[in-house]
Amino acid sequence: MKMDRRTFIKAVGVLGASLFLQTYKSDLAKALELSETKVLWFHGVECTGCSISMLDGGTPDIVELLQYLNLNLLYQEVLMMQQGIFVDGKPANTSDLNSELLLDEILENEKDYVFISEGGVPNGPDGTGKYLVLGGRTYKEIYEKAAKSASVIIAIGQCATNSGVNAAKSDVKELLDHRGIAFTMEDSSKGIIDLLGIDKPVININGCPAHPDWVFLTISAVVLGKIKVPDDLPYVLDRWNRPKVFFPPDHVIHDNCPRRGYYDRGELDLTVGGPNCLWKLGCKGPYTHADCATRHWNGHQSFCPQAGSPCIGCVQPGFPDSTRPFFVESEDAGIVGTHLDTVAGVAIGGALLAAGAHAIRRTVLKKPVDKEESAEENISEKTGGEK
Amino acid sequence: MVQVTIDPLSRIEGHYRINTEVDEDGVITDAQSNALLFRGFEKFLLNQDPRDAALLTQRICGVCPVCHSIAAANALDELFGVIEEVPKDALVMRNIHQGFNFIASHAAHIYILWGPDLANPAYHNILMQYGEMGNAVWGELAGRFMPIVNQFNGIRYPAGSSYLGAIREQRHMHDAISLVAGKMPHSVLQHVGGVVYSPTIADINELVAYVEKTAEFVEAFTLGVSPDTWIENTYKASSPQKAVNFVLERLQELLDNSLVSNDFSHSSGWGDVPLFAAFGSELVGEQLLGLPISMKMDRAGVYPDPDKIGFLSYGVFFKPENGDGYDPTSPADERVIPSGYMNGNLELEEFDYRIISESITHSFYIDEEEDRSPWNGVTVPEGDPDKIDYTKGSESRYSWAKAPNYGGIPCEVGPLARLMIMGEPLTTGLVQTFQENGYSPVNNYTRMIARMQEVLVVMSELMKWILQDLEPDAKVAVHTDLSMAKDSTGMGLWEAPRGALGHWIATGSDSMVTLYQAVVPSTWNLAPRNSQGIPGPVEQALIGTKISAAENALGVDYANPLGILHTGRSYDPCLACAVHTIDRTGKHPGHTIRVL
């Protein structure tokens, strides 16, 4: 089904221009001829924050995305009319109202759709997947069927990409066995599709939550053929299957942080609420690969360190274990070289060294005053030593 | 007897099932509320730096993360012993952060999650019996509330205008939060001892602009009158009766204008609230306004036995005039929306946080004790897959949610409970009106009207906090270091958009976490039976009500159980919130309740 030109022009008129139009201006003519792309969107072990984040998207917004790319969203728990309805244990009504019948029709008839995975997949207890049962079936079972017929799986958010908080260190972690799609924490052998033996290309859009631009522009690129799946994937994705354009291997958040100038002058905040660099408060910006500092969030206006919070590395594989404690300087936490990306470690080493030299001469530390001396020593020691 | 099951109940946060037994007259005779997912949450806070809690616990829920970060920050303030020094401007920032999220979360629930049920085909069939007027009203319902994914007889309809508008407004509210809190969901503002960002004068002006922008949507779509006019005549009305009269007069006026033309459009003044207020209720619509038809939502979602239900609010939004610091036990005069407990007969009682406990008798957990206080909470999840079975009925274990109790009584939490306890004039007046006319005062209709009203209440307070109370570039945090959390405890009582939220934390000699527990709103509302066998609020609200649209107006239709959907969704279910784990006592010493 081709997108009708008149409808398209009308939609653009009503909704107004957007960054999406600028980005894909030359592809507009092509978009008009796009055939319908079917999209399946599942929710597993998660908080629905990624769905909410997608509703917060503005360039394009979710409705523009669906219209411009002629996407047919077949199933999405938050945005659909249907729900599972059973009468005396048997599915009732029709797929117009019954999501379980809709799901069966999709699983039976559809293939080669874009499969958006939000949330992880429970494997516990004992591999049964019974920690999430929907309509009498385990999510694991439904997931397996859906994933087998997909053309590409786009995992959105930390729970789907790496299992995120659900797989954080705890004494029930092994029992629950919540899995990411292609990775669990940093382990690519533990993803659910590996466990189920499903060989499908996976694109990971990390983040807690994922940024709507990252997701929508990735979908756009795939649907418009800008990224050919699977042929182009080895070149456009990093070793965690993340698009390099949004998660640049050679750049970190620290590079473009608006507080960077304070860092270079050695003006480091020791308590929250101040205007200076957040390094001493545990900022993971120097180790975190994402374009947050240039793209910004929610209408492109701010991001965590700009609003006074140390970056907690929520896009990093292994989050939160690899980046907590959040408010302790990374070297003090003893995690450099174990979890954090070594490329970033090397890159930032030089910067730290330079800043350290400045800091010795020029550190202007804010309150509390009694910490001034030891903080200065720390900086020179750390930068001069380990790196 | 017919078994009707909704599994999953979609358009909520999380994964939820409702199972019912229905008799041949279409009356629900038994119900079980099942939380379907076990996630495991507080466990990974154990033995960790307590300061991470404000950022990590908000990841319990992506719809209302802000309340978790504030409840955690409140608990940390006490844990670190700085609760009396938290700067006033930090408290105002917490109010603003939470205020924007209340509006965004309510907008998401009313329009995106709950609204689409108004466009259910059952209402098409019911309304079409009433000629032009029915036709016009159905056109409005479908045109406003149709969700993005829908089909009728295989045909897809465009998403509703109000629905799409609400997505936009939620986005604006989140943009506003992001401005001062980095990003949304999972913003980063909250921290022990205050907040991490002090807004500039430019930020303050921008925040005002965001509220103004949403006020425009509210005027054009939600209310059909300016929010100021509405608030002056309801929230700020001199008596509950005056507030109700204002709304009834407004509805009568709209109706008089539309009866000839059958024009119920936004442009003729029928905002979404008036449309629902008139057609949602049998009492208001049919009896007071003389409409031929209504959705009869005031007949469902009621509690038959006042001895088995209560209403609870922990209180939310600090009073800026109280200056620095606050009382962690949240007594009524400390918060803008106060703490309080109201019994099933709607009598206000003094709130005592010490009598909160949770039962696991009907939940998939293993423990020798059936009831425990949050300070001594234990959660050992069922690990035997054969024992995880939702289908064995009310006498069995059937949910991953526990059953919280206040002095042994299950409680409804959320906007209706809060505004009744607050004595908000419109809510109080409505509840009284229902009572006086022989209706149950608490029902699906009053529950939804209270949620709509709370958006407006919070909007007006939000404007005050931004314009009057917030100082630019003020001090927003007191200094803390980890050693201050040694061998300590803290409690954070707050309100999520969907109800009472408490976080409890304890630390050991190394200042690391030894106990963390969150008792959350959807665990209250969607609880299974407690240890005395008393059904949870949503179960009580289902039993005795009818299964199909508008009190079985078109007969009994087991295959389209709108009655269950309306009642279940009227609580704004948020399941990720309700399923989590807590500390097991074996590994950590028992906790003594501190009497403050």
Automatic annotation (TrEMBL), chain A:
InterPro entries reported in the protein's UniProt record: Cytochrome-c3_hydrogenase_C, NADH_UbQ_OxRdtase-like_20kDa, NiFe-Hase_small_C_sf, NiFe_Hase_small_N_sf, NiFe_hydrogenase_ssu, TAT_signal
GO MF term set: 3 iron, 4 sulfur cluster binding; 4 iron, 4 sulfur cluster binding; electron transfer activity; ferredoxin hydrogenase activity; metal ion binding
Keyword Signal: yes
Segments for region (Disordered): 367-387
Residues annotated to bind [3Fe-4S] cluster: 292, 311, 314
Gene3D superfamilies reported for this sequence: Cytochrome-c3 hydrogenase, C-terminal domain (4.10.480.10), NADH:ubiquinone oxidoreductase-like, 20kDa subunit (3.40.50.700)
Keyword Signal (UniProt): yes
Cofactor(s) demanded: [4Fe-4S] cluster; [3Fe-4S] cluster
Single GO biological process annotation from the record: anaerobic respiration
GO CC entries: [Ni-Fe] hydrogenase complex; ferredoxin hydrogenase complex; membrane
Keywords per UniProt: 3Fe-4S, 4Fe-4S, Iron, Iron-sulfur, Metal-binding, Oxidoreductase, Signal
Binding-site residues, [4Fe-4S] cluster 2: 254, 257, 277, 283
Domain of life: Archaea
UniProt similarity note: Belongs to the [NiFe]/[NiFeSe] hydrogenase small subunit family.
Protein name: Hydrogenase small subunit
Native species: Methanosarcina acetivorans
TrEMBL record, chain B:
Location in the cell: Cell envelope
Binding site for Ni(2+): 61, 64, 574
Binding site for Fe cation: 64, 577
Source superkingdom: Archaea
Alphabetized InterPro entries for the sequence: Ni-dep_hyd_lsu, Ni-dep_hyd_lsu_Ni_BS, NiFe-Hase_large, NiFe/NiFeSe_hydrgnase_LSU
GO MF terms held by the record: ferredoxin hydrogenase activity; nickel cation binding
Entry keywords, A to Z: Iron, Magnesium, Metal-binding, Nickel, Oxidoreductase
Signal peptide start-end: none
Keyword Zinc-finger in record: no
Record: residues binding Mg(2+): 42, 580
Principal location: other
Pfam families: NiFeSe_Hases
Cofactor: Fe cation; Ni(2+)
Database matches in PANTHER family: HYDROGENASE EXPRESSION_FORMATION PROTEIN HUPK, HYDROGENASE-2 LARGE CHAIN
Protein family (similarity comment): Belongs to the [NiFe]/[NiFeSe] hydrogenase large subunit family.
Listed name of the protein: Nickel-dependent hydrogenase large subunit
